[in-house]
């Protein structure tokens, strides 16, 4: 995540999270630390995983006090092990205490997504299929969660509703059918936009191909039907499969031959990676 993105988008979200946690003051910290004192605290990894979001973690403390200093020993994308010291944070002890939970909430969530994503991406190594995330993200966390997917070795599907056309079952229902939905999308959307449509049967697939869809999502279809669908498409469109894809069941999809596999589980079901701030002391 570059500095421009951080300042334009992430800062506002991080500040909102801090305001949620500190509506007027940190009563506990102010009661035990009434004035400035310089201190340091260790960032410790408590289980094996992939680091993601260290700049977001740092930014929490910087927004509270831009004189906070960091010694970080790993980069995003690095594998970290249980018991390792990821870094040291130095600054006003009041800032270290008040920013701790928000900073860890971001870091643990992002590391968890990167770790889970990498475990699935490794299963796809050697195949033509790319792993995609979805819009099934935590409200106001999308920029962080999709970044973590990329760190873990996955790829981002469209960022939001303004970013691409994806005609799903209810859009098709609203339009009156597959062909009608594609026709209306082509008439409305700029010619530079690809049109993706979700199909649930081989009959719907045939209609989508005849109507000229650019990408066809095979949703919750059987493995046998998906293999037949790839043969029917025969390079006339890109193919994506989806439908409750997890680490436990993705292997059955690897040899189907689709271009993409999308998984909402990357962001909605990844467990956090346990990290903590320990050994706070004055210096």
Structure description:
There is one protein chain. The chain has 283 residues and is α/β, with parallel strands linked by helices. It has 2 domains: 3-120 and 271-282, Quinolinate phosphoribosyl transferase, N-terminal domain (Aldehyde Oxidoreductase, domain 3); 124-268, Aldolase class I (TIM Barrel). The protein is 43% helix and 20% strand. The chain contains 10 helices and 12 strands. Strands 6-11-10-9-8-7 form a 6-stranded parallel β-sheet. The protein has a 4-stranded antiparallel β-sheet with strand order 3-5-1-12, with helices on one face. Strands 2-4 form a two-stranded antiparallel sheet. Helix 8 links the parallel strand 8 (195-199) and strand 9. Helix 3 runs antiparallel to helix 4 (93-124) and helix 8 packs parallel to helix 9 (223-233). The longest helix has 32 residues, at 93-124. The chain is elongated, with a radius of gyration of 23 Å. The mean pLDDT is 96.
Task: Provide a brief overview of the structure.
This protein has about 280 residues and is α/β, with parallel strands linked by helices.
Largest sheet: 6 strands, parallel
Tell me what portion of residues adopts beta-strand conformation: 15-25%
Q: CATH homologous superfamily of the largest domain - what is it?
A: Aldolase class I
Average pLDDT works out at 96
Count the DSSP helices: 10
CATH topology grouping of the largest domain: TIM Barrel
Distance between the termini: 32 Å
General shape: elongated
Map the helices and strands.
Blueprint: H1 3-21, H2 27-32, E1 38-45, E2 49-50, H3 54-64, E3 69-72, E4 79-80, E5 85-92, H4 93-124, E6 130-132, H5 142-151, E7 165-167, H6 169-175, H7 178-188, E8 195-199, H8 202-211, E9 215-219, H9 223-233, E10 238-242, E11 260-262, H10 265-268, E12 275-282
Parallel strand pairs: 6-11, 7-8, 8-9, 9-10, 10-11
Antiparallel strand pairs: 1-5, 1-12, 2-4, 3-5
Helix pairs in contact: 1-3, 3-4, 4-5, 6-7, 7-8, 8-9
């Amino acid at each position: 995540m570059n500095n421009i993105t951080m300042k334009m988008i992430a800062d506002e979200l991080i500040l909102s999270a801090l305001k949620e946690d500190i509506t007027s003051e940190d009563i506990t910290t102010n009661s035990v630390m009434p004035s400035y004192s310089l201190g340091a605290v260790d960032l410790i990894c408590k289980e094996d995983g992939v680091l993601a979001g260290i700049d977001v973690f740092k930014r929490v403390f910087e927004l509270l006090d831009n004189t906070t200093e960091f010694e970080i020993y790993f980069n995003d994308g690095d594998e970290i092990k249980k018991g390792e010291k990821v870094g040291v944070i130095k600054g006003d002890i009041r800032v270290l205490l008040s920013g701790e939970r928000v900073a860890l909430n971001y870091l643990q969530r992002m590391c968890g997504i990167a770790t889970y994503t990498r475990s699935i991406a490794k299963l796809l190594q050697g195949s033509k299929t790319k792993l995609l995330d979805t819009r099934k993200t935590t409200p106001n966390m999308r920029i962080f969660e999709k970044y973590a997917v990329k760190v873990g070795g996955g790829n981002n599907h469209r960022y939001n509703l303004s970013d691409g056309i994806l005609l799903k079952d209810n859009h098709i229902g609203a339009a009156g059918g597959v062909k009608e939905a594609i026709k209306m999308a082509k008439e409305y959307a700029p010619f530079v936009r690809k049109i993706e449509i979700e199909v649930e049967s081989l009959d719907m697939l045939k209609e989508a191909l005849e109507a000229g869809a650019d990408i066809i999502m095979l949703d919750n279809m059987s493995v046998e039907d998906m293999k037949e669908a790839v043969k029917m498409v025969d390079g006339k469109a890109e193919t994506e499969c989806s439908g409750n894809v997890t680490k436990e069941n993705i292997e059955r999809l690897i040899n189907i031959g689709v271009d993409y596999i999308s998984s909402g589980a990357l962001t909605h079901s990844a467990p956090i990676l346990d990290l903590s701030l320990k050994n706070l002391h004055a210096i």
